[in-house]
Specification:
The chain has eight helices and two strands. It is mostly helical and 174 residues long. It folds into three domains: 36 residues; 64 residues, no CATH class; 36 residues, no CATH class. It has a two-stranded antiparallel ribbon. Strand 1 and strand 2 form a beta hairpin.
């Protein structure tokens, strides 16, 4: 035999539908006296969803593309909350997901530099002088004959620009 269900009064149903976006489920429960689960199920059966998706602006995407290699996700969240505040605050998981969808990855040197900046601030634990990790070796292959080892302070764009300028000078003497 099916379990008898309690019927929602029309006034209560209308109140929940009108206020579900402005109030939390707990607030609706306190006012109506109906459990949170029943409120959620009723709204779902009526076709209402409570998803707050915000799309990224071009400015936000460009900022992320330009800075994801040297700024960690936690710091990006702080910057975005100041620069582009939204109803639900930015979290580090937002950037992890966005980077994954954009197919952008940090290499070992990027991660090392971010962790070291956190260590210097004291948010990644105190720096251990005995076990201070050496930066990983990252190689930049410019052509078949030229490979450059990048260090923590290397800027890839300036290295490529210098190399191109050097090639122009050598070609002019030939």
């Amino acid at each position: 035999m099916p379990k008898p269900t309690k019927i929602f009064p029309k006034e209560t149903e209308q109140f929940i539908v009108e206020n579900h976006l402005h109030m939390t489920y707990n607030q609706l429960q306190e006012i109506t006296g109906i459990s949170v689960t029943r409120i959620f199920k009723k709204l779902k059966s009526l076709g209402f969803k409570r998803i707050h998706k915000t799309s990224w602006t071009k400015e936000q995407v460009d900022f992320l593309k330009n800075n994801f290699r040297r700024i960690g996700n936690k710091d990006l969240a702080v910057i975005y909350n100041k620069k582009w505040p939204k109803e639900i605050a930015w979290k580090s998981s937002n950037f992890k997901t966005k980077l994954k969808y954009m197919k952008l990855k940090r290499n070992k040197l990027d991660l090392f530099c971010i962790k070291e900046s956190y260590r210097k601030r004291g948010s990644w634990g105190p720096p251990d002088l005995k076990r201070n990790p050496k930066p990983p070796k990252v190689f930049l292959k410019l052509d078949d004959r030229t490979t450059i080892i990048l260090t923590e302070k290397s800027n890839v764009d300036t290295i490529i620009e210098r190399y191109q300028n050097r090639n122009k000078i050598h070609k002019s003497f030939k």
